[in-house]
Amino acid sequence: MSIVLLGLFIFRCLHERLTRKGLMIWPMFEIIPSIVFHLSDAYNWGTIVLIKAGGTIHYRGMWMGGAYGIATTDPSNIEYMLKTNF
Fold it and tell me: 43-71: buried (b, 16+ CB within 10 Å) or exposed (e) per residue?
């Protein structure tokens, strides 16, 4: 049973890595491992992630943690958020 769960975890990680632009979302841990792996170079890593994702990323915290949000550098998205009741 544990081998099957490990296989599903690895498959999910590979699928996420190959299909997602920008930020790596890990199963159950969401963005926490990505932040820890790049802690020493956080600003450059964050800039690269935003560039790869086209300027806007959606993120989630740990599983069942309830933290989520959006990070953007796109001026039209920022203008929309400031002018509307986003």
Answer: eebbeebbeebebebebeeeeeeeeeeee
The 8 Å CB, 24+ separation contacts for 69-76 are 71/46
Helix segments in 20-41, DSSP class H: 32-37
> Which amino acid is located at 76 in the chain?
S
* pLDDT tens digits, 7-55: 887 777 777 667 766 666 666 666 777 778 888 888 888 888 888 888 8
Contacts of 4 (CB under 8 A, 6+ apart): none
Distance of alpha carbon 66 from alpha carbon 74, whole angstroms: 25
